[in-house]
Amino acid sequence: MCMLDDLDRGLIHALQLDGRASFSRIAEVLGVSTQTIARRYQRLRADHGMRVVGLGEPHRAGQTRWLARLTASPHTAQDLALALARRDDTSWVKLASGGTEIVTVVDTGAASGNPLLLHDIPRATSITSVSAHYILHAYRGGPTPWPGHLKGLTEEQQQQLALEVHPGDRALAETDRDLLTALGRDGRTSLADLAGATGWSSATVARRLAALQSTGELFFDVEINPALLGATTEALLWMAVTPARLDAVGTTLAQHDELAFVAATTGPTNLMAHALCADPGALHHYLTYRLGALDAIRTLETAPVLRTLKAAGPLLF
Questions:
Q1: Which end of the chain, N or C, is more open, meaning fewer C-beta atoms within 10 Å of its C-beta?
Q2: Which DSSP string do the residues of 223-252 spell out, in sequence order?
Q3: Do residues 162 and 219 touch, judged by C-beta distance below 8 A?
């Protein structure tokens, strides 16, 4: 697999900071022509499946998030994972542990109780186990991306592109549903198309986007194969941490460049992380020397990721 060059990394970093930044603005910061940035963007989309997705703040009022773990027989796990990926209430569907384990995030309204997923899925005879882990607190993930996406710009360039965010009381409204749905499919959808999707005017869409971004309730993520950025080995880490030191360990892990996601959860393990490393040796070094140095981690289960069938945005087929 080819590696991305510095310009590609700069473009990805820019889009992570502001997913709707114009090509001309990005080009000015990177010191190239607008046409060059447009061509690079289209190439990354066409050749490498890159997508910018707009997402609502994951811990907004009325939303709960679960991590669901399912194990299944090898000949049915992939079909089951694809079925889960097609659901509107799932994201980050991954095949792990040799292809016999499926892990996914399930979003549900606070009033609906446990996700319907956990009522439906165990009926399949190929399922051998199901567990659900309520996400209590995310130390990294969502608006705080994997550092591998943030290595293409200098500090000065970042300051030129970063949006000012002032968290406030403004809440995503039910009327924003169509806007979020369109942005979830393509965060760079034009104002005209967003106006068509919402029934608003283009000016109203622009004002609402600016308002939601300014309070951090709307953010953008760049979906691209991490192997293109040098991370060829992925693993899900399930840790049991001494409760009194859970917050300290979670905060420490959130500073590790190897981790794309860190969250406190319910269940027999109380801290989960998603590791992205250069190769198996790098993962071994990370587990042994960095995590191994944290004596508050009592147990650690490592589940290698074979394939990601769905990331943050919905499937487009």
A1: C
A2: E--GGGGT--EEEEEEEEE-GGGHHHHHHH
A3: no
Tens digits of residue pLDDT in 167-183 = 776 677 888 999 999 99
Q: Which residues pair with 315 in a beta bridge?
A: none
Q: Which residues pair with 241 in a beta bridge?
A: 297
Chain segment 73-120, per-residue pLDDT in tens: 888 899 999 999 999 889 999 999 988 999 999 988 644 445 455 566
Residue 5, helix vs strand vs coil:
coil
Helix (H/G/I), strand (E/B), else coil: 116: coil
Res. 123: pLDDT tops 80: no
Strands (E), 39-124: 51-56, 63-72, 90-96, 101-109
Percent of the chain having pLDDT more than 90?
Answer: 75
Crossing angle for the helix pair 202-214 and 191-198, to the nearest 10 degrees = 100
Do 293 and 251 meet the contact criterion of CB atoms below 8 Å apart? no
3-class SS of residue 122: helix
Helix (H, G, I), strand (E, B) or coil at 265: strand
> How far apart (Å, rounded) are the C-alpha atoms in residues 312 and 51?
10
Residue type (1 letter), 140 = R
Q: Cβ(137)–Cβ(70) under 8 Å?
A: no
Can you give the three-state secondary structure of 283-315, one letter per residue? HHHHHHHHHCCCCCEEEEEEEEEEEEEECCCCC
Q: Which tokens go with 188?
A: 């760079």
Strand-strand pairing, 218-223 and 51-56 = antiparallel
Which of 284, 285, 282, 249 minimizes the C-alpha distance to 264? 249
